[in-house]
């Protein structure tokens, strides 16, 4: 028996309240494993309960029909007992017809019930992926997102209800459209980031999650643990741990995206600058001299291409850069 068959069997037992503790735990773990599994369970439960209701109604109707049929057959036997036609044969034929009709009624009723349930208009959920490069995305509410490479967000086609909620896998910089009546919530790796209107960066490629706030105020939480972050603060949470580590942003070591497709470097070593540019433009940057990595850059770049950025860096520190097969090479004496 394959895994799908096993889950199907367990689902049937679970919905019929026939599973033991171990089997119930298995169903619970399976539902928690993915949103698709949870949706499958919810749909199965709706259909199961609908079938029970329809079956109950149809059973009452069929029983009444059987009672009428038996009474009619008994009376007819008295009338035609001396004839060649055998009432029992007619009764068997009618009984079979009734059973088939009852089954078809249940199937049709179940189909109608399920169709009615799922025909309700739902707010479509959209998925947006960045693949190998950073990509800008504007959400339906006007929120701007710079999605880093190999990252994914899922969001509704239109925000409805009291909150604006999305899911993130990977890293993104958010410039959230202010709406005090509808908080913006990001779900990622078991944590929640809740804001009204601000700009911040969230990094969550795995279970280790980091939030860095550029402007405004953010609430960062996991389970029952939460912290409030303001401008210049960050919080991190490690895999399989609920404790949140809060700290101040060290400007000399942190790269903060000032605007979408822009960078602010404040006394940042070129080694760190190169890492940020490599991630942004999906290209490797290497040095011929390790002393170049120690040069500290203070500069702001807004919507500049990589060659323009490298030209400014090269002029500032008397360097040269070359495009080679495996990436870009920066050469020069470097800094003490």
Question: What does this protein structure show overall?
Answer:
The protein is of the alpha+beta class. The chain has 3 domains: 34-118; 125-248, Jelly Rolls, CATH 2.60.120; 262-331, Phage tail protein beta-alpha-beta fold, CATH 3.55.50. Helix content is 38%, strand content 31%. The protein has 6 helices and 18 strands. The chain has helices at 3-15, 21-33, 35-80, 87-118, 270-281, 306-317, and strands at 125-129, 135-138, 144-147, 152-156, 164-175, 184-188, 191-195, 199-204, 209-215, 217-222, 225-230, 233-237, 244-248, 262-269, 285-287, 296-302, 320-324, 327-331. The strands form 3 sheets. Strands 1, 2, 3, 4, 5, 6, 7, 8, 9, 10, 11, 12 and 13 form a 13-stranded mixed sheet that branches. Helix 3 (35-80) runs antiparallel to helix 4. The chain is elongated and about 75 Å long. Mean pLDDT is 76; it is low at 71-91 and 252-259.
């Amino acid at each position: 028996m394959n895994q799908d068959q096993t889950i199907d069997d367990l689902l049937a037992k679970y919905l019929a309240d026939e599973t033991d503790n171990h089997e119930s735990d298995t169903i619970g773990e399976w539902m928690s494993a993915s949103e698709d599994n949870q949706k499958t369970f919810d749909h199965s439960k709706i259909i199961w309960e609908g079938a029970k209701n329809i079956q109950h109604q149809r059973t009452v109707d069929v029983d009444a029909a059987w009672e009428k049929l038996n009474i009619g057959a008994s009376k007819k036997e008295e009338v035609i007992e001396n004839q060649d036609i055998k009432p029992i044969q007619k009764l068997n034929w009618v009984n079979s017809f009734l059973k088939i009709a009852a089954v078809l009624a249940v199937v049709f009723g179940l189909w109608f019930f399920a169709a009615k349930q799922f025909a309700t208009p739902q707010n479509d959920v959209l998925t947006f992926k960045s693949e190998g490069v950073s990509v800008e995305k504007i959400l339906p509410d006007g929120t701007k997102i710079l999605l880093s490479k190999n990252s994914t967000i899922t969001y509704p086609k239109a925000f409805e209800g009291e909150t604006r909620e999305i899911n993130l896998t990977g890293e993104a910089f958010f410039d959230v459209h202010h709406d005090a009546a509808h908080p913006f919530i990001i779900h990622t790796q078991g944590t929640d980031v809740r804001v009204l209107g601000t700009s911040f960066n969230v990094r969550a490629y795995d279970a280790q999650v980091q939030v860095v706030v550029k402007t405004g105020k953010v609430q960062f939480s996991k389970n029952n643990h939460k912290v409030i972050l303001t401008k210049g603060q960050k919080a991190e949470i490690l895999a399989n741990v609920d404790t949140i580590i809060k700290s101040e942003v060290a400007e000399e070591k942190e790269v903060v995206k000032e605007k979408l497709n822009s960078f602010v470097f404040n006394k940042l070593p070129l080694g760190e600058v190169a890492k940020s540019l490599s991630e942004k433009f999906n290209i490797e940057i290497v040095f011929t001299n390790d002393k170049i990595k120690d040069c500290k850059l203070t500069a702001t770049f807004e919507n500049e291409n990589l060659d323009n950025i490298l030209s400014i860096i090269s002029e500032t520190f008397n360097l040269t850069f070359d495009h080679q097969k495996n990436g870009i090479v920066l050469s020069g004496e470097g800094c003490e």
